[in-house]
Structures are given as C-alpha cells and as structure tokens.
C-alpha cells in the first residue's frame, strides 16, 4: 500500500465513533471524497451514498435498462460505544452502552470521551453492569481524568466514547491495531474503490458503482434498514448486487494475514450462490492462494438486511482480531484474556480486499449465468459415465 493511501486509512481508523455518533467519521469521509472530487449525498437518515451527487442521480442509475448490475458496496461508520446519560459530578458521567463489548475486566478499563467536534478527555470505567443476557455491557460510570473545560459546557447526552488504548491506531509488522477496524476498514475500501471508479468512468455513460456508508449498524443494521425502507433499491429496474464489506471475527479457516474472505454467509443466513460463484471465480483469478472462503458466523452483518429485503447479496470480510474490542486473540494492549483490547487486521488482507472490489467493478462478469461452465463440466462427466446408468 502506498504511503498516501495508508495515511488515508490511518486517518479514518483514528476517528472516534459510536452508534448514532458518526459525525467525526462523516467529516473525514467528506474530506477524502472532496479531495478526489468523488460525488456523494446524504439520504434522509444520514447515511452517505457515494458515487452520485443526488437522489435523482441514484435513481437514474438504478432505473437504467442494462444487464450490468449496479454494485452497491455497503459498510458501516459506527463501532460499539457508549452515550453519556447524565452528569453525576464534574468528573463522573453515567453512560449507556450500544453494541457488543467484552464481558470481563471492564471495571478499571480506559475509555476516551468525545463530542461531535472531537475528543475531549479520557477516563476510567467504574460500576459496570452487564445486560440481562450477560452478552455485553449495559450501563456504567466513567470517572474522567479531569473536568471538561468550563468553556466546553456540554450536556451529558452530547458525549460518546469507547475503549481507549495506547493510540487510536498503530502498526506492528503488517498488523494494524486500532480502536475500531470494524467497520472503518470497510469504509476505507469503499472510498478507495469510489476514487478508482471515478478515474476510470469519466468516459463511461453511467457508473455501475454505488457506495453506501451507514449509521447505527451495531444495534440491528438501523441505518441500512432505514435506507432499504426508502424503497429506492427494491424499485430498481436494473439488476442490483449488494457487496457487504466487513471486518469479521477471525475463525478457523479465516485466519488473519491469509487474505480476504469470500464470505459465504453470516450468523443469520447464507448469501446468494450465483453472486458468490462470480466472486469466488474472481478471487481465484486475482488472488490465487491469497484468499479464503468461509461462512463467517461469528456475527451477523448488513448482508442479512439486504438479503431480507430481496437484494442479491455477497460479502467480503477482513479477518478481525479481538472482535468488538474483546481480547479473544490477545496481543498488544490486551491486559487480560477476553478483557478490553484493540481490534487488529492485516495490511495484506486489506490490499487483497481492494483488489477484489476493483475486480467486481469490471464489465462483463458472468452475473447472468455464472454456473454455465460448471454445468458444461458436469454434462461432460455425465457423457463419460452414461453407459453405466
């Protein structure tokens, strides 16, 4: 990865974010898109639609009569985190958590606290209470390292935060450690693909690329569902293929550093077999022996929402260490097994994902009948053994 591209990745991964508190990610996304003159607009729910400048332009592409499907790449801008609830004193903040967390060693862990205009202060978690199902943190108090400056008088409900580590993002070898690879690495891949498509499609009549950067994924794909409920995709005349980009919990057969994963499904559902055939064939061509295939059932993702709304859906995952900041794999800054820990991904996996995204945008992929060659091989085999029937 070129230094300038890696710098863009770092800048995204460093952005503070939490469900419904994605403003700082949005600002960085806008900065990067504007720097490359990539068109975008906001849907009515604050999701960013990348590659087109307006709702009208989006619908125009969806309603073009073409056999080439519109590829809708989807990633989310949030990561599990907390909202401030009320001030208990000038240095004590009651919080409510949204999304997954470690289930052990939460008390005493370090957190950062931000508002929509940036980081404000750091603190320590006290009096942590898990949800009734014991699967994640529910409420807690945060003891601030120092009071927020008097000229920063701010309501508790305007604050948000998450687990804090030595830095927002750092590299060790080819591993990238960060507060939130899930799913800011996917956001990065969409921005980079949008830039590539803008450069390649200047002479094209209509681009087949759309990026959808969503909000509130960590609590039930809220932004994605709100976008789907608009009806724009379901009413499309042109074929649509949704491509979910995620950082997903590493599992046997989906190992960090062994390449991006052709995601066959998630915890809720398998994905479209025809589309996965196209993606698998492409991976064999572009990344021989440098990709993986697996049902990534360590969690569910926005591909489930797309599938539920009848959209042809496939997925690419980056194998993710310490999913949702829970120290499954341990490593740097993980003080206790299964306690708070930075997430980590591998640079080679990210570069492989970028190649697959670019490959999926090539014209002429066999979306219409991806199983033709397989049928031909099976018919040939039938002919060889017909006499035994």
Structure description:
It is a single chain. This protein has 389 residues and is α+β, with helices and mostly antiparallel strands. It folds into 2 domains: 3-79 and 170-372, Aminopeptidase (3-Layer(aba) Sandwich); 81-165, Elongation Factor Tu (Ef-tu), domain 3. The chain is built from 9 helices and 17 strands. The chain has helices spanning 3-13, 23-35, 55-62, 181-200, 222-229, 273-286, 302-308, 347-360, 372-385, and strands at residues 40-42, 48-50, 70-76, 81-89, 92-98, 110-115, 118-130, 137-144, 160-163, 169-172, 175-178, 209-214, 240-249, 261-265, 292-295, 312-320, 343-346. The strands form 3 sheets. Strands 1-2-12-3-13-16-14-15 form an 8-stranded mixed beta sheet, with helices on both faces. Helix 1 crosses helix 4 (181-200), helix 4 packs across helix 8 and helix 6 (273-286) packs across helix 8 (347-360).
Which helices and strands, and how do they pair?
Blueprint: H1 3-13, H2 23-35, E1 40-42, E2 48-50, H3 55-62, E3 70-76, E4 81-89, E5 92-98, E6 110-115, E7 118-130, E8 137-144, E9 160-163, E10 169-172, E11 175-178, H4 181-200, E12 209-214, H5 222-229, E13 240-249, E14 261-265, H6 273-286, E15 292-295, H7 302-308, E16 312-320, E17 343-346, H8 347-360, H9 372-385
Parallel strand pairs: 3-12, 3-13, 13-16, 14-15
Antiparallel strand pairs: 1-2, 2-12, 4-5, 4-9, 5-8, 6-7, 6-9, 7-8, 10-11, 11-17, 14-16
Helix content: 25-40%
Query: Pairing-aware structural class of the strands and helices?
Result: alpha+beta
Q: SSE string, helix = H, strand = E?
A: HHEEHEEEEEEEEEHEHEEHEHEEHH
Would you report the number of β strands? Answer: 17
Number of domains: 2
Shape: globular
Low-confidence stretches: none
Largest sheet, order of strands side by side? Answer: 1-2-12-3-13-16-14-15
- The overall average pLDDT, rounded, is 95
The CATH architecture of the largest domain can be given as 3-Layer(aba) Sandwich
CATH class of the largest domain: Alpha Beta
Strand proportion, as a percent range, falls in: 25-35%
CATH level 4 superfamily of the largest domain: Zn peptidases
User: Tally the helices: what do you get?
Assistant: 9
Instruction: Report the sheet with the most strands, covering strand number, pairing sense and barrel closure.
Output: 8 strands, mixed
Gap from first CA to last CA: 55 Å
Radius of gyration: 22 Å
CATH topology of the largest domain: Aminopeptidase
